[in-house]
UniProtKB/TrEMBL annotation:
CDD domains, per the entry: SPR-like_SDR_c (cd05367)
Enzyme class: oxidoreductase
BP term (GO), one: tetrahydrobiopterin biosynthetic process
InterPro entries named in the record: Biopterin_syn/organic_redct, NAD(P)-bd_dom_sf, SDR_fam, Sepiapterin_red
Organism per entry: Drosophila guanche (Fruit fly)
A GO term for molecular function: sepiapterin reductase (NADP+) activity
Gene3D superfamilies listed in its UniProt record: NAD(P)-binding Rossmann-like Domain
Subunit structure and binding partners: Homodimer.
Name of the protein this chain belongs to: Sepiapterin reductase
Compartment list: Cytoplasm
GO cellular component: cytoplasm
Length: 263
C-alpha cells in the first residue's frame, strides 16, 4: 500500500482504542501533500486529542473530526462528511476506509434472552447498518481510484463465544457484507481486508470482563489481562501494517493477528 500517494483516510471509532492507534500510525506514514484524514466517533474532545497527536507527527496533513452517533447515522450523514472533508483538496490517488467502530453489546444475557427488538435494532444499526451505509457512500465517492476497505473483524465473527450472542451475530453479518463486496469489486481497484486484531487491552475487553454472564469467559479475559498476554493497540496495529505491506491475502480474506504474515 503506497502511502506516498495523495491519500484520503477515514477511520471510524478514532476517539480511543484500536481506532485511535490505527489512525495515528497510518497518518504518520502518509507522505503526499494534500492528503486528508477524517476521524469519526461520538466524543469530540477525544477525537480532537487524536487529531492533535496526528498533527504533531505530521503537520502537513489536513485532519477533520466529526462527532456522529452510529446508532442513528444515516446515509446522508456519511455523504455529507465525505463531501465536506474533501473541500480543501481533490484528486486523491488512493482512498482508505477503516470500519473500526464497534460495541460489544450486552454480554450479561444468554442467546435465549436477547429478544428485545428495540435494543437489537439500535445495536445492529450501530454495528452493521452504519458500516454498510458508510461503505456504500465511500465506494460511490471514490469510484475510479484505488480503494482499501478494512473491516475490524474478530474471532467472534467466525466462532461462537458464550456471552457474546449480540457481538458474534453482528460481527458475522458485517464480515459477510465485506466478503460479498470483495467478490463483486475487482482487486486491485478495491482491496478488502477483514482484520481480526487479537484480544486487545481496551475499554471493550474491560466491559466483557466486568459484565459477561459466563464465568469461564470472565476468567479468560482476566487471566490474559493479568498475565499481560492481552495485546496492546500498538502491537496489533504493527501487525496490521505488516499484513498490508506483505499483501499475501486475497481481497475479502479474514486475517487474524496470529496468522503468519509470510507463508
Ligand atoms: N478489543 C478487542 O480485543 C477486540 C478484538 C477483536 C475485534 N475488536 C474490534 O475492534 C474495534 C475497536 O474495538 P476497541 O477494543 O478499540 O473498542 P473501544 O475501545 O470500545 O472503542 C470503540 C470505538 O468505537 C466508537 N463507538 C462506539 N459506539 C459508537 C457509536 N454509537 N457511534 C460512533 N462511534 C462509536 C467509540 O467512540 P466514541 O465512544 O467516541 O463514540 C470508540 O472510538 C471494534 O470493531 C471491535 O469489535 C476488538
Amino acid at each position: 500500500m503506497d502511502l506516498k500517494q495523495k491519500t484520503y483516510l477515514l477511520v471510524t471509532g478514532a476517539s480511543r482504542g484500536i481506532g485511535r492507534e490505527f489512525a495515528q500510525q497510518l497518518s504518520q506514514r502518509i507522505e503526499a501533500l494534500g492528503s486528508v484524514v477524517v476521524l469519526l466517533g461520538r466524543s469530540q474532545p477525544l477525537l480532537e486529542e487524536t487529531k492533535g497527536t496526528i498533527l504533531k507527527q505530521n503537520p502537513e496533513l489536513s485532519v477533520h473530526t466529526y462527532a456522529l452517533d452510529l446508532a442513528t447515522a444515516r446515509s446522508e450523514d456519511f455523504a455529507r462528511i465525505l463531501k465536506y472533508s474533501q473541500v480543501s483538496s481533490a484528486d486523491f490517488q488512493r482512498a482508505i476506509v477503516i470500519h473500526n467502530a464497534g460495541t460489544v453489546g450486552d454480554t450479561s444475557k444468554r442467546a435465549r434472552e436477547i429478544g428485545d427488538t428495540e435494543y437489537l435494532q439500535e445495536y445492529y444499526h450501530t454495528n452493521v447498518f452504519s458500516a454498510i451505509a458508510l461503505n456504500c457512500e465511500f465506494m460511490r465517492t471514490f469510484a475510479g481510484i484505488p480503494k482499501l476497505v478494512v473491516n475490524l473483524s474478530t474471532l467472534a465473527a467466525i466462532a461462537p463465544i458464550s456471552s457474546m450472542a449480540h457481538y458474534c451475530t453482528v460481527k458475522a453479518a458485517r464480515e459477510m457484507y465485506f466478503r460479498v463486496l470483495a467478490t463483486e469489486e475487482p482487486a486491485p481497484d478495491t482491496l478488502v481486508l477483514n482484520y481480526a486484531p487479537g484480544m486487545i487491552d481496551t475499554q471493550m475487553t474491560e466491559q466483557v470482563q466486568r459484565e459477561a454472564h459466563d464465568p469461564a469467559v470472565v476468567a479468560m479475559f482476566r487471566e490474559q489481562r493479568e498475565s499481560k498476554t492481552m495485546l496492546t493497540t500498538a502491537q496489533t496495529t504493527q501487525r496490521f501494517l505488516q499484513v498490508l505491506a506483505a499483501q499475501r491475502f486475497q481481497s475479502g480474506d479474514h486475517v487474524d493477528y496470529r496468522d503468519p504474515v509470510e507463508p
